[in-house]
Design goal:
homodimer, about 325 residues, alpha/beta, 434 Repressor (Amino-terminal Domain), Rossmann fold, six-stranded parallel beta sheet, four-stranded parallel beta sheet, 12 helices, elongated, DNA-binding
Chain lengths: ~325, ~325
DNA sequence: ACGATTTTTGCACGCGCGTGCAAAAATATG
DNA sequence: CATATTTTTGCACGCGCGTGCAAAAATCGT
């Protein structure tokens, strides 16, 4: 048994020599479902332990053409909900053996190059939790196709080459609209986020249509370029400054919580009005702050954990077709509306 | 020139054949600093483009033993500052050619296994932006040593095997303490985060010592187990309920903004007092919400972009010794104190 | 135009592990 | 105890690219 001084770069061969077996047996010991006797496995593991051996996943990925790695493309770090999604996703992924490559989509036109980045690592799938990607990008991604799956998380997509895992936006929005109506609000204003293909404006359209069908008139609506509380705050100040008593909206329905939080801040601190007595606010996502005593935001909660787990199911499934799926969330009623 | 129908898995060999050069010339064309004539490079790139070739970074990493990949270990997603740090870090890293593996440290005892995870991918460095790791973990990490560098970001560490990139906590805290004193506050209460080796309680100790040296008495202090606004909110409610008029703190100095925001919420909505008139609050980090009209939090801003860029410098430098560095930030005075 | 110098190109070998199959060992069967 | 069956182990080849060196081509000087 030779002993070398420098213990750097221990490979399966070294462990094999130490344990007195072949290299392949060593590899088997590290595989979950492998035919190996418990005795040898223990022997191998002991040797590995003593040498500090850890399998090299680069080589494994290269040899097997399966990396157990996914790329997570994020383009909008101003939205606190992103942090929640990242936590839930990485938790589900890691606890089931997947690693995550975090790719910051630096600016509006960077999505394509971000995907290229991911493809160079030969990830098994790319997950989009951002919003600023359009059909061009999706098409390019599909063409390059160095990753087998393109998953759009928490957004509905009609693109046939993607797998979309999201809440049922229409059902959710109808539930919100119904609640707004039943609580007796008469003059809602809808605050929407950026208009992109992926977002599809499904929520806004659904809300406006519902309201029109039930009351006969179409509510007003405004929009911002990003899901950023600051932008929401600014546009609310500007928009509401123009209204006089009667015409002023009695509730602002926001496409998500990031906008809702900015809206509440603006109502209170710029317009010096009360929430919900003067103007109510309703959001979407149920970010952690929504529950803080300061906001007590009425909002719609997505079942993120279930969605994340389903995402891993998708990763682990062999076939690609018909994987889209929508989930039902629930309205969380607090005091803002 | 042969043509194959299935364009899957295009390798450098395919491009070489298409361009009429050797495989090695193809690889050179994709390297920044390589001796290759512009003419051949163009020819190769055109061929690569037409075949949809993208270099395989797994193989490159395997062959060169350099992955251009770092692991980012995050253990505390409740702190909104994490989102900001992640954005700044991934931006700096990606724009300089580095990819990021996001590893969610699932629970308190998971740091070791998270590092193992990273080491299996043979990352070039591991970056810790969490707090729940202690000397045991660092020792284990140093022993395993499958990554060359262990960087602690935004936290001071005395461990000789790590590289710490952080704001000068003592100088920063002294600046805060001096400000508190000059503004005439008499009875501060310090709210600290979890006690770990990495955190080192440097801020708390510095503040208490400064105050003692200048006024003769030691301020009260309390602590929570995580940098979570909810926890801060709870403990503030409990603690302040016990005080009567005179003894009540006139300012609460928080170890970071996550705690400060929860503190403000609690003061206003649980104790029904005003900030800063009844109790002032001061934070650390300058998270985006600190600037919202609702909080207007006086806090200390870390130069995150400079720190992130320095981190990449460290990654790209060959030697390992004496890389620790502290940065100076600046006090951002708003209305909360 | 010829040799000296510089730039550009080609190549053998190895990085560490997976895969599928065949040989060997262990166990079961009559 | 001999043979059939099952479990366990060993191995050749390949995954796609880097590295360092030597050969070939291009450039320069006079």
């Amino acid at each position: 048994m030779k002993k070398i001084d420098l213990p750097e770069n221990v490979t399966a061969d070294d462990v094999a020599a130490e344990a007195g077996v072949s290299r392949w047996t060593v590899n088997r010991a590290f595989k979950k479902a492998a035919s190996i006797s418990p005795a040898t496995r223990d022997k191998v593991m002991a040797a590995a332990q003593s040498l500090g051996y850890v399998p090299d996943l680069r080589a494994a990925a290269l040899a097997s053409d399966r990396s157990n790695l996914v790329a997570l493309l994020v383009d909008d770090f101003a939205n606190p909900h992103k942090l929640v999604m990242m936590e839930r996703l990485t938790r589900a992924l890691r606890s089931r053996g997947w690693d995550t490559l975090l790719v910051n989509t630096l600016d509006r036109d960077d999505a394509g190059s971000a995907m290229l980045n991911a493809s160079q690592r030969r990830v098994d799938a790319t997950i989009l939790i951002g919003i600023q990607f359009d059909d061009e990008v999706l098409k390019a991604a599909h063409k390059a196709r160095r990753f087998k799956k393109l998953i759009i998380f928490a957004r509905t997509s009609e693109n046939p080459n993607t797998i979309s895992i999201a809440v049922d936006d229409q059902a959710a929005t109808r539930e919100i609209a119904r609640y707004v109506m039943e609580r007796g609000y008469k003059n809602p204003l809808y605050l929407a986020g950026p208009r992109t293909v992926s977002a599809h404006l499904l929520r806004k359209e659904t809300f406006l249509e519902f309201w029109k069908n039930h009351t006969g008139h179409v509510p007003g609506s405004i929009g911002v370029d990003a899901y950023d509380p600051i932008l929401a705050s600014d546009i609310i100040r500007q928009t509401l400054a123009g209204y006089q008593g009667q015409e002023r909206p009695d509730i602002i329905v926001c496409e998500n919580d990031a906008l809702a939080l900015g809206t509440i801040d603006s109502i209170r601190h710029h317009l010096h009005l009360r929430v919900p007595e003067d103007i109510a606010v309703i959001g979407f996502d149920d970010v952690p702050q929504a529950d803080s005593p300061n906001y007590r935001l009425t909002t719609y909660r997505q079942p993120l954990t279930a969605m994340a787990n389903y995402l891993v199911d998708v990763l682990e499934s062999a076939d690609t077709s018909d994987m889209d799926r929508t989930f039902m969330g629930s309205l969380v009623v607090r005091e803002s509306a």
